[in-house]
Amino acid sequence: MRLLLIFVVLVLLLALSVVSNAQTVTLDYYFNRETHKDKQGKDIRFHYLWSERSGSGFSILGNAFKKQGFKLDSLETSPTLMDLKKSDVYLIVDPDTKKEALKPNYIGTVDIGVISAWVKKGGVLVMFANDSANVELPNFNKLADVFGMHFTSDIENHVIDDAHFSEGTIVIKDNPVFNTAGKIFMKDACAITANGTTEPVLKNSNGATVIAYTKYGQDHVIAIADPWLYNEYVNGRLPKELGIENDKAADDLVSWIKKLTDK
């Protein structure tokens, strides 16, 4: 009985240690703050939320992070160093245009200074853009430019309708990051131009860079041309005959981010 009690205590201590050492991934809820009306006419948040299980949510991507031991968090305000100090990874996804929010929260000079200083001190920043008609690129690019990256106004992988899903596919081969996903779907994305030490991670069939990476200070920055891992395109809605593996790509991306945070 005594040995059993000791064993139980050790297991509990180990579990507490794992929880306390878990890394935190924080999703921006400030620069992207879209709302729509519910059945009662009340404005409610939607689009790229951890808790959102509908097609426009990030619940599946959140589960991929949790599988790698991350704690999920969100930030409803303009970031400060005190806020970001609590996070190992900070995701900014599809900042709002005036079409998407009555009063968009644009990324400003102070925000850029805070975010870049946090990365220099050891944070991993992931920037998800979109095609230029659906993301606020001018101010987002002021942040991206600090890291030697720039989101263009080009539209890559344009998909007219559901009958043309194949035009949004990218075949992956011998990629060090996406090493289990053989084909992904990323439609109506922008492209990324890079300079300095920035490296292309993934290109489409046109040779346009859709994912890029750079080291900045003590840590890393990842730029992605589209918020492509929202539930709609990870939960099986895509035709099975196309062999798209966005679910595996989500796990591959998070595994890579995990490795970056461990360095």
Series of secondary-structure elements, N-terminal to C-terminal:
HEEEHEHEHEHEEEEEEEH
Annotated CATH homologous superfamily:
Class I glutamine amidotransferase (GATase) domain
How would a crystallographer describe the biggest sheet? 7 strands, mixed
**Strand order within the widest beta sheet:** 4-1-5-6-13-12-11
Strand content: 15-25%
Total number of strands: 13
Roughly how many Å apart are the termini? Answer: 42 Å
Question: What's the domain count?
Answer: 1
Helix content: 25-40%
Structure characterization notes:
It is a single chain. α2 crosses α6 (246-262). By secondary structure, this protein is α/β, with parallel strands linked by helices. The chain is globular and about 50 Å long. The chain is 27% helix and 22% strand. The protein has a seven-stranded mixed beta sheet with strand order 4-1-5-6-13-12-11, with helices on both faces. The model is unreliable at 3-20 (pLDDT under 50). It has a single domain (24-262), classed as Class I glutamine amidotransferase (GATase) domain (Rossmann fold), CATH 3.40.50. It contains six helices and 13 strands.
Question: Secondary-structure map with pairings?
Answer:
Layout: H1 2-20, E1 24-28, E2 35-37, E3 43-45, H2 59-67, E4 71-75, H3 81-84, E5 89-93, H4 109-121, E6 124-128, H5 137-146, E7 149-151, E8 169-171, E9 183-185, E10 192-194, E11 199-203, E12 209-216, E13 219-224, H6 246-262
Parallel strand pairs: 1-4, 1-5, 5-6, 6-13
Antiparallel strand pairs: 2-3, 7-10, 8-9, 11-12, 12-13
